[in-house]
From TrEMBL, chains A, B, C, D:
DNA-binding region range list: 37-56
Keywords: DNA-binding
Name under which the protein is recorded: TetR family transcriptional regulator
Residue ranges of domain HTH tetR-type in the record: 14-74
Species this protein is from: Hyphomonas adhaerens MHS-3
Origin: domain of life: Bacteria
GO function terms (MF aspect): DNA binding
PROSITE patterns associated with the record: HTH_TETR_2 (PS50977)
Taxonomic lineage: Bacteria, Pseudomonadati, Pseudomonadota, Alphaproteobacteria, Hyphomonadales
Length: 206, 206, 206, 206
DNA sequence: TATGAATGAGCATTCATTCAT
DNA sequence: TATGAATGAATGCTCATTCAT
């Protein structure tokens, strides 16, 4: 069961690719997609430039692969919320509020996050990848909410994704310390969104 | 009255600087800070490379200046909400929800927005500028809300800024057409936030 | 008596030229003739680039002027040895041996010394200046020796100039501390050269 | 016997490096370290600019390598004086006096000589190299003198190095034709220095 | 006399990429 | 699979110099 590598070489190849991706991610995080250079990445991997081109035909291809892997990771981290009881789901999501200001690797915030969004504005392939991945993440999240018996899961998903995306930007624009209050409010909002029967005009009102 | 240029040369100089900034902004938008080249910008301005360096000592200086001007523009566009009656304020803010998906120049979304956020992650000067500007914008918005007689304006400001920041990311990640429903929800949320006496656990609940 | 400036403006002009030369000398010393830039020199003088060109038509002209002034200074410092009694002359010259390892401004050693020699190898104008100045210095020194009643002053001058030139190079190649002994030897050699009736094959032998 | 290159590629690489060094030396001699450009050197070698950087990481590195090779050559040319009989040593050294005014490649004079000395004044790495190499050359020369049975070889070495260094400067400052007499005197001095039992206050006196 | 805007060639350096081995 | 030699265009930046004012 599961896809096991066809041969030993194939396994080695995949490992090598993984290593390159991880090196590339590091460099891209530090210097940006355009600031990082292929040769630096190759050197960091301990392979030659020419050999890197054996695995990735161009820098754009490498960028795309990194973006894809990054999003794979985001997607994966949604798994943590599957199979939670409705109540635990609410609590865990509320906790994310705090995490987003500190951790760099969770669904709504990655170091490469804004780099990717910026790139998406000018690279259609990246944009397509981004949107396709987002669609999938929303779909999974909707399923999670539905399984938890929450009404109108699509809208609530959108709301939550919007708020968390916003938070990740605020972590950069507003890193001061008085934000503790904000976090409390947001937590409450999240709990509301996941707890109320109706979402907005109804649920949020008296 | 009004600030008139001290001298003719100074005026010319300022005009030239403005032109460079505008060209640079265009190039940076299209190719990113690191993708765009000084020589391209200079050529587009109709001046020589060397001469551009007469006005900006380095590319970083130019980037910083563009970021600063960009944020000045964001800040300015808040002015539109000053002097509005409380009710109009609510409606106008709700309208922004739609605008953020279409317009490229308003307080919470600019083409350069993510480029700047990405740059802020590795360039401390940009980060400082970003935070300082955000502080000022929040202060102004708080004043607007307070003048409109809205309770706990600080928290509501944070909430609104968070939501709009999130929306601008969603415009990229989720540009599909079924989002009309989301917009309606967000609009309602904004109206709630600006209309309720209490903010969260209280106001959003029944 | 002596040449007084024709007018106040002329005096001012000369002062300005002096200032430029002194700034240029500083920059050339620090970065070399080719490493230093006109604009840096102008800035250091507190004048505009264009204005510097009012006084010196080109960088080469400025270099030449600095070389000339440098050599003027070397020449001047020979004056110190005129009017010395024969015995004092010997002692003073012997003292120079020590000075050459520490001072940067005396006839046989200047910071710009090697820069000038290197430039002379490729710039004929500098070479000509160098040789002409050296001729004049030798002539003056010969006169000094002759007045002191020293035999064959031409040859002794050559010998002394050679030794001091050599010392200035050794100050760079051999700046260690065990050189005290060398200095004593050289001192003695100088004293010999200036004291013996015959110069070499005779005088230096038993 | 002999050092044979480890592999064919390594040999090729070394040959290429040699070629670059020789081209660089030529350019540096003609225009000075700072006057010569990398692109000119690369073009002269028949390689691309980028490729030159494959071998030398920066211009400074290249300068340093040229200086090093230059000094290697100076050091090597001392070999000619090893294994000479005492008498032949005296004569050969005396002959050098003439050579220094004509040849460009011998221990005490190279075209790049003053360029290097000038650079040493501002580039500590070059200075260090210069001093280290000089120390070694002195050491070797001392051994030569000692083997020839000459007393106090250290002091005599210093004296000779000083005189020859001085001569190489005089070749530039005093290239006129009446110097034949000087040469004779210097020759005698050298012979004395290498022939007398005592060096200075004693040997040079009656 | 004095400014500083303006130029464009030149600088050292890095880039993504190709290719023979 | 793996190397690293090789390219040449492009990078950000500085240069000496000119010129209108």
């Amino acid at each position: 069961m599961g896809e096991m590598p066809v041969s030993k070489t194939a396994a080695k190849r995949e490992a090598r690719i993984c290593e390159i991706l991880s090196c590339a991610e590091k460099h891209f995080s530090n210097k940006g997609f355009h600031g990082a250079g292929i040769s630096g990445i190759a050197a960091d991997c301990g392979i030659s430039v020419g050999h890197l081109y054996h695995y990735f035909g161009s820098k754009d291809e490498l960028i795309l692969a990194v973006v894809k892997s990054e999003m794979g990771r985001q997607d994966e981290s949604i798994t943590a919320f599957e199979d939670l009881s409705p109540e635990n789901l609410r609590l865990e999501m509320a906790e994310l509020t705090t995490a987003i200001f500190s951790t760099d690797a969770e669904p709504f915030r990655t170091v490469l996050n804004f780099e990717i969004l910026a790139e998406a504005q000018r690279n259609p392939e990246v944009a397509a990848l981004l949107q396709q991945q987002d669609t999938q993440m929303r779909r999974r999240f909707v399923t999670i909410l539905r399984r938890a018996g929450i009404d109108d899961p699509e809208t609530r998903t959108e709301l939550i994704f919007t708020i968390f995306s916003g938070l990740s930007a605020r972590a950069l624009r507003h890193p001061e310390q008085e934000r503790a209050a904000l976090l409390e409010v947001i937590k409450d909002v999240i709990l509301k969104i996941l707890g109320d029967k109706q979402v907005a005009s109804g649920a949020l009102s008296a």
